Amino acid sequence: MSSAVVRRALLLSLLCAGALGFLPCSHGAAVAPGPGYVTVSAASFVPSSTCSAPDPVAPQRRKGTSAVLRLTHKHGPCAPSRASSLATPSVADTLRADQRRAEYILRRVSGRGAPQLWDSKAAATVPANWGLDIGTFNYVVTVSLGTPVVAQTLEVDTGSDLSWVQCKPCAAPACYSQKDPLFDPAQSSSYAAVPCGGSVCEGLGIYASACSAAQCGYVVSYGDGSNATGVYSSDTLTLSPNDAVRGFFFGCGHAQRGLFTGNDGLLGFGREQTSLVEQTAGTYGGVFSYCLPTKPSTTGYLTLGGPSGAAPPGFSTTQLLSSPNAPTYYVVMLTGISVGGQQLSVPASVFAGGTVVDTGTVITRLPPTAYAALRSAFRSGMASYGYPSAPPTGILDTCYNFSGYGAVTLPNVALTFSSGATVTLGADGILLFGCLAFAPSGSDGGMAILGNVQQRSFEVRIDGTSVGFRPSSC
Known about the structure:
Blueprint: H1 3-17, E1 37-41, H2 57-62, E2 67-73, H3 81-84, H4 91-110, E3 118-119, E4 132-133, E5 139-145, E6 150-157, E7 164-166, E8 192-193, H5 199-202, E9 208-212, E10 215-222, E11 227-240, E12 243-257, E13 265-268, H6 276-279, H7 281-284, E14 288-291, E15 299-304, E16 316-319, E17 321-322, E18 330-332, E19 334-339, E20 342-343, E21 355-357, E22 364-366, H8 368-383, E23 389-390, E24 399-400, E25 407-411, E26 413-417, E27 422-424, E28 431-432, E29 435-436, E30 438-440, E31 448-450, H9 452-455, E32 459-462, E33 466-470
Parallel strand pairs: 4-10, 6-13, 7-12, 21-31, 22-30
Antiparallel strand pairs: 1-25, 2-5, 2-15, 3-17, 5-6, 5-11, 7-13, 8-11, 9-10, 10-11, 11-12, 14-15, 14-32, 16-33, 18-21, 19-20, 19-26, 23-24, 26-27, 28-29, 32-33
């Protein structure tokens, strides 16, 4: 923290205390931020019960993008009515589930021995992974499946590959309760079960299960103990009125067990051949992007396709890497962090394990030394404005009480990646539940995770060689 900010904070405290003959200050008084700081309304941290933002999908379509879907938070007023009626999980439940997911990802990528990253352009044989995914409970899109089309609300996950929906015949307890009717393959003229013995069934690899009635079986086991099983199938997936994926391979689920609830299934956006991205690479070039809404009361978008080659203007790009132990994940190299405009003194070796870009993890996880430096600098910056601390919330240990404040001034937090790509976070990318939205995990030199809080409002563009970030996009 700069000495100018400290001097300014001391003067402000004297003015507000009346030590220099002035009247006491109200908590609601707005204060012009110093260099490296930003002031926002305290009301912006309070969730809204109405969908208040304009839909960002229409202007994206006007740009001529191939396929654009409306992306919403699952537990919010902008979600489809089928999903929005679900009970919102508590803060404690959200953080517990997030911790399970983060721990699973870090176990999966760690493998044995020192971390190893491969350049995505290199020709190399990628070892098979464990055959485990872990579901996301955050963002959903509505697509259609079959002929005639049947609307399906699906969770979007960049950390999973195989997509699936619940299908008839299926009944509790084999299937969980959902708001939409179950997809009925018998009513779709374009549906076909994948036969056993062919190349498509063999391509399931680790997801392959026993055949039944000459139909290819699949099983997806998730890190929290949940699993989904059924018949590997193909049908027409309609993304928008002008974009249909014929012969899309997915799981027609007849038995699901675990923590699934409400939505109709999952749409996998990982890097393996069963994912939607890989299946549509011939049409959309293996390029996709998304903009996660800043709050549950606003909307974002999910795009398949776009200009090939270099990212369009406005993006900061960094190289896309791979983890040999978990080739599903999109990995980049975090190289530095700044707080309040000051670069933290963290050795480069601390970040050497790379960083998974994940839509399903909420809180960004940093190696312990990096997190300790971030926390110290952030606490120092907040102390200069005199904000009272609050008790920890689950894994979040740096929390504040903003009751009575009309405006809140925060130190800027910026993340720098290889090639110099820098992401300067907005206020809702810094705080969650009134707490610093970062946590320590793993070990120095191990993998970090870029969570969805820090991705919100950015258009994140992913292709075969790079990941790009464009600010203020939704």
